[in-house]
């Protein structure tokens, strides 16, 4: 039986919120106030799968269940799982020998896997299958003696994991500007791969600049930027030109959430902000605003978006129009280590992770 989300107390705001009347008086709005709500938004299949993996591990093995890094980059999700008995650690050496540890959706390097084995840890690998695909590409091209230009943000967990598959063959390219200066060993044996949560436009600009310098640069066999990242950026691109204000729900360490703010501004939103919770919204943002765009990153549960919509309604934005740019029906099987346990226990309640499959609150 699937457990229900835990309701957590939201952070307090150290000020008194201005009334809707005061905000309206400060900057009157002409025309009907409304919200343009992006779709798709929120949880992707990989995130859903990873969160369910931790929930099922807690249910079947009992707490504590250790998780290396944040299972997904969202404060609410992490705090909810902590309430249920998950313990988040930075590295496997913080996990007691023989204990159970879950690897996060962002993936890990072979060195992390070896470290867990050396400590006799039981592991559940909740790496998103789309990240695993990039790992396999890195291994394959390294074996073919290609130099890999990995487009991504150095220090991000996903980039660390992919880089760790073939460090002697890989260089990280952080930005289009770095593409102008990077040096390679053999310009005829080059391929680019990317972090899955980047800005589509910025990644393509980086590739363009690389190819200007290295015409024989090869593309990956398929797009590395995940479908959810691309779809959420496409939705906000459609909304942004019509929006006086865009609110992106997502955490500061969520790369795809941060990119949504950047994309909104690039494509014409007058203002765009990221919040973890509705009570982080500054009501002054509504001054003079007719149309509010709302979306959320791929690791954000829908309950947090609904909180923002309720707040917006209090300030006169009760009309909500959903802007649909794609339909998502991708499902991923749960990690194989967990599937075996669920099968033995006769638990058929959840075998898949994916959009539309998860109860919302």
Automatic annotation (TrEMBL):
It comes from Sinomonas halotolerans. Dimethylallyl diphosphate binds at residues 73, 106, 156, 254-256, 299. GO terms for molecular function: 4-hydroxy-3-methylbut-2-enyl diphosphate reductase activity. CDD domains: lytB_ispH. It is an enzyme of class 1 (oxidoreductase). Belongs to the IspH family. This is 4-hydroxy-3-methylbut-2-enyl diphosphate reductase. (2E)-4-hydroxy-3-methylbut-2-enyl diphosphate binds at residues 73, 106, 156, 196, 254-256, 299. [4Fe-4S] cluster binds at residues 44, 128, 226. Pathway: Isoprenoid biosynthesis; isopentenyl diphosphate biosynthesis via DXP pathway; isopentenyl diphosphate from 1-deoxy-D-xylulose 5-phosphate: step 6/6; Isoprenoid biosynthesis; dimethylallyl diphosphate biosynthesis; dimethylallyl diphosphate from (2E)-4-hydroxy-3-methylbutenyl diphosphate: step 1/1. Its EC number is 1.17.7.4. The active site is at residue 158. Catalyzes the conversion of 1-hydroxy-2-methyl-2-(E)-butenyl 4-diphosphate (HMBPP) into a mixture of isopentenyl diphosphate (IPP) and dimethylallyl diphosphate (DMAPP). Acts in the terminal step of the DOXP/MEP pathway for isoprenoid precursor biosynthesis.
